[in-house]
Write a structure and sequence with these properties.
The complex is a heterodimer of chains A (about 325) and B (about 300). By secondary structure, chain A is an all-alpha fold. Chain A has two domains: about 45 residues, no CATH class; about 230 residues, Orthogonal Bundle (MetI-like fold), CATH 1.10.3720. Chain A is about 75% helix and about 0% strand. In chain A, α1 packs antiparallel against α13 and α7 packs across α9. The longest helix of chain A has about 40 residues. Chain B has about 300 residues and is mainly alpha-helical. Chain B has a two-stranded antiparallel ribbon with strand order 1-2. Chain B is elongated. Classes of the chains: A mainly alpha (about 325), B mainly alpha (about 300). At the A-B interface, α1, α5, α6, α11 and α12 of A face α6, α7, α12 and α14 of B.
Chain lengths: ~325, ~300
């Protein structure tokens, strides 16, 4: 096991280098952020050349990549171009708390709903409720998140109004000027802004998760030890919730581990629709507005977390399921 | 009309290849899958409407009515006496006509992107699985790298560079969509190449390219079909997301995604503009997912995707 982990950790290094190179190439295609300065008559051409030299834009792209890579090894991620005067790394870190809050809550809601309905529809296979759950999961998977968000906005902010005021605010994260209010007012205010994004995100991931739970449960209840448990005369409740559930939950561990990168990286399009200043929105902005140092930080962070939690998923899987052996 | 049946004929009838053919079995299993059949009928209706609809409802989707006739509500009649069953958009264009033409664009992108992605993935998986060793190692590490990339942001980055046409968009979706098919096909090839028929082909000196494309690839057809069907839904959603953010199909060409982009600014004044394209995307993707899920079970009951 220890050798396995060491080997996997070593394998991460070329993978992360490959990701950084590929992302760098794709982002470099978007062009030279200083070229736009050429059209500004107040900026001297020598200044632009100097900037381009500093950033390596006078070098071919693969050399620029190495220049960037060496500055990363020195811990320098470069300044943000979108937020002048701030370092790209700090810009990204400042966005993480908001995303963690929105994504974390959605993740918990999705998990708390998906697991019970997955179990229920497995235990009552081919019943009306099973078909209902299956259909609903497909709905969640097939719904474009941004459209679902817009629909909720129409419903909660336009159709349902109380005394001429929308029931829920259509976007953003807090009411202006709320910071001077007492804690519980701020808390309720924050919750109001969270309701719609959480519904959208949770509904989206609930679909695959409940189906996953259902098929995992169906597989377990077919096994011999479940038949033995039934033959002993145990009640159906004990058989399902004590004997079957524990094994059926094992694959869910993988699911949880693989979802963690998403909790940090955020959902770009949902954040865009609800105007939430989180990681996803920052990533989109940095890419489309040519702020490549910030975009690199965001994309590499996502890539790194994805690889890392893939490893975590495999290790945790081996720990909870002694049948799995890694050599 | 009794007729003597020879034993030979009877035996042939019993084990006639039609009766037991793989595709007939698939169709039999598929027909038992309720959701898959629902999805299939939904798809047939949607595709027919998008193909035939513009021939019956002859309104130019890009024609802008002169004068202040933007955002007419559904059913309104404009000064030329033309009724707009679903109203007009922010440029005073007929919404129904745009939905019909937009559906063609969205379906075209969905189909071609996922078919191309499945083919690219299949070829990579085929080469990787057949040659093994170093080639396999390199190709699979590249696949790993692509699998770890955040799709949506990079789709947008690439789309904003390459250009905003339909073909470019298809290309971009393929670049980030071939990996699952590659892995799946590689796995199948690994087991196929150990079987006798491959060994026999190699023994009589059939060149590797012919073994791969004539003997092995046809055997992975079921998996390519599964990959394609399940991929169409997500390709349509990718198209819609990119166009919604303004980096995909460009106006005046309509697609369901870019119709939403324009509509978002009028969400308070004309909510129906947001509703129509989205509900069509939703129903279409849902139908593909229903159908794809059933098809996967029918083609290979053991496969998990």
């Amino acid at each position: 096991m220890r050798n396995y982990i060491i080997r996997r950790l070593l394998q991460m290094i070329p993978l992360i280098l490959g990701i950084s190179f590929l992302v760098f190439i794709i982002l470099s295609l978007t062009g030279d952020p200083f070229a736009a300065l050429m059209e500004n008559p107040r900026v001297k051409i020598e200044d632009i050349r100097r900037l381009q030299h500093q950033w390596g834009f006078d070098l071919p792209v693969y050399l620029r990549y190495f220049k960037w890579l060496f500055s990363i090894f020195k811990g320098d991620w470069g300044p943000s171009l979108l937020y002048p005067g701030r370092m790209s790394y700090d810009v990204v870190m400042a966005r993480i708390p908001v995303t963690l809050q929105v994504m974390g809550i959605s993740f918990l809601v999705a998990l708390i709903v998906a697991i019970p309905i997955g179990i229920y529809s497995a235990v009552h296979q081919y019943s009306f409720a099973d078909y209902l759950v299956t259909s609903l999961s497909f709905f969640g998977m097939s719904m474009p998140t941004f459209w679902f968000g817009l629909m909720l906005m129409i419903l909660f902010s336009l159709v349902i109004q109380i005394n001429g005021m929308p029931l829920l605010p259509p976007g953003g994260i807090m009411t202006p000027g709320i910071l001077s209010e007492p804690f519980w007012v701020r808390f309720v205010d924050r919750l109001k802004y969270l309701v719609m994004p959480v519904i959208v995100l949770a509904f989206n991931s609930m679909g695959p998760w409940s189906r996953y739970m259902r098929s995992s449960m169906l597989e377990v209840v077919r096994q011999d030890y479940i038949r033995t448990a039934r033959a002993k005369g145990l009640s159906e409740r004990v058989v399902i919730y004590k004997h079957a559930l524990r094994n059926a939950l094992i694959p869910i561990v993988t699911l949880v581990a693989l979802s963690i990168p998403g909790i940090v990286s955020g959902a770009a399009i949902t954040e865009f629709v609800f105007n939430i200043p989180g990681m996803g929105q920052l990533t989109l902005n940095a890419i489309t507005k040519n702020d490549f140092p910030t975009a690199m930080v965001c994309l590499l962070l996502i890539g790194f977390l994805t690889i890392f939690f893939n490893l975590v998923a495999d290790i945790v899987y081996a720990i909870v399921d002694p049948r799995i052996r890694y050599a | 009309m009794a007729r003597d049946i020879t034993t030979e004929e009877a035996r042939e009838e019993l084990i006639s290849p039609e009766e037991f053919s793989y595709w007939k079995m698939v169709w039999k299993r598929l027909r038992k899958h309720k959701l898959a059949m629902v999805g299939m009928y939904m798809l047939i209706v949607i595709i027919i409407i998008c193909l035939i609809g513009p021939l019956i409802y002859r309104v130019d989707p890009n024609y802008q009515i002169e004068g202040p006739y933007e955002l007419l509500s559904p059913g309104a009649v404009d000064p030329n006496g033309v009724r707009h069953p679903l109203g007009t958009d922010d440029f005073a264009r007929d919404v129904l006509a745009r939905l019909l033409y937009g559906g063609r664009v969205s379906l075209l992108i969905g189909f071609s992107a996922s078919i191309s992605a499945a083919l690219v993935g299949a070829v990579i998986g085929l080469i990787s699985g057949y040659y093994g060793k170093t080639i396999d190692n390199i190709l699979m590490r590249i696949t790993d790298i692509f699998l770890c990339l955040p799709t949506i942001p990079l789709l947008i980055a690439l789309a904003s560079v390459i250009g905003k046409g339909i073909l470019q968009l298809i290309f971009v979706i393929v670049v980030f969509g071939w990996m699952t098919d590659a892995r799946l096909v590689r796995g199948v090839i690994l087991s196929l190449k150990e079987q006798e028929f491959t060994e026999a082909a190699r023994a009589i000196g059939v060149p590797p390219s012919r073994i791969m494309f004539k003997h092995l690839l046809p055997n992975t057809l079921a998996y390519i079909i599964i990959g394609t069907t399940l991929g169409i839904g997500s390709s349509i959603i990718y198209e819609a997301s990119i166009s919604f953010l303004g980096f995909g199909v460009q106006a005046p060409t309509a697609s369901w995604g870019n119709m939403l982009q324009g509509a978002q600014n009028y969400i308070w004044r004309a909510p129906f503009l947001v509703f129509y394209p989205g509900i069509l995307i939703f129903i279409t993707v849902l139908a593909f997912n229903f159908f794809g899920d059933g098809l996967r079970d029918a083609l290979d009951p053991r496969l998990k995707l």
